Amino acid sequence: VGAGARACTLLVRIGAEARGTASGYVVTFDDITELQAAQRKAAWADVARRIAHEIKNPLTPIQLSAERLKRRFLREITSDPETFSQCADTIVRHVGDIGRMVDEFSAFARMPQPIIRPEDLSRIVREALVLQRTAHPEIRYETDLPDHGPVVACDRRLLGQALTNLLQNATDAIAMVPKDGDAAQDPAGPAGTVRIVLRIEGAAAQLSVADDGIGLPEEDRQRLTEPYVTHKPKGTGLGLAIVKKIMEDHGGSIRLEDRPDARGAVSILILPVKDDHGA
C-alpha cells in the first residue's frame, strides 16, 4: 500500500472451526512471492544452460565462414560487391550479438559461488568506472564517494560485475531517450549524466546509480529483476537478474526507483558493512 508498494502473491487457506455451539472459519494468508520467484529463477537457469549449449557451438563456424567468403570472393564479384560486403558484415555483426547474448545466458546459468573477502567498496566502484569512462566518453559520470571504505565482505569480481551491469543499464537508458525529447540539451555537451553515490545507512552500505535516461517502465517494473523481463529493444532481460543473484549471494539486495527530482531511474545496491572487529 502506498508509493513503495510491491506486488505480492498470497496463498489463501480457509478452514472451518467448530467449538461447542459456535462455529466459524479460520483464514490464513501465506506470502509465497519469494518462493515463486525462486522457482522461476531455477527454471530459467535450466533453460539458459540449454540455450547456451545449443547455440554456442555453431556460432564460430558461421562467423568464420562469412569472413572467409568476404576475403575469398569479394574481388571476384563485379556486379554488386558493395552489397556482398555489407551482407557478410551483417552476418558477422549479428553473430557477435548472438554470442554476447549466449555469454549472458551462461553467466546467469553458471553463476560461481562468491569468494568472500574484506574489500574496499569505494575502490571497487572507482575501478568499474575506469572502464565505463573509457567505453562511453559521451556520458558524464559524477561520483560522491568517500576516499576509503566502507569495507564490505564480498567477492570483488562479482560485485564489480554487478556494478558494471548497473552502469551499462544507465547508459542504455540514456541512449533510449528520443533525440528531440530534450530541446534544452546542448548538442556539444554530454549525452547524459550518471551519478554514483555511496552512503552508510545503519549497518549497511547503500550504493546508488542514478541516470537521466528514459526511466522505469510503468508495466512489469516489479519484475525487472526476474530473468528475461526487459523493456530494452535489444535487451536479454538477464542483466538485472544477474545483479539480483549476486546481491542475494552477498546477503544484500537491489532496489529500483524513479528519480524523485527529474527524469530517469535510480538503482540501489544494499550490502552489509563489515565492522572494525571483523564481524
Describe this structure in words.
Pfam families: HATPase_c (PF02518), HisKA (PF00512). With 279 residues, the protein is of the alpha+beta class. The chain has 2 domains: 39-109; 117-178 and 190-272, Histidine kinase-like ATPase, C-terminal domain (Heat Shock Protein 90). It is 42% helix and 24% strand. It is built from 5 helices and 9 strands, in the order ββααβαββαββαββ. It has helices at 33-73, 81-109, 121-135, 156-175, 239-249, and strands at 10-19, 22-31, 117-120, 139-144, 151-154, 192-201, 204-211, 253-258, 265-272. The chain has a 5-stranded mixed sheet with strand order 4-6-7-9-8, with helices on one face. The two termini are 36 Å apart.
Layout: helices, strands, pairs:
Elements: E1 10-19, E2 22-31, H1 33-73, H2 81-109, E3 117-120, H3 121-135, E4 139-144, E5 151-154, H4 156-175, E6 192-201, E7 204-211, H5 239-249, E8 253-258, E9 265-272
Parallel strand pairs: 4-6
Antiparallel strand pairs: 1-2, 3-5, 6-7, 7-9, 8-9
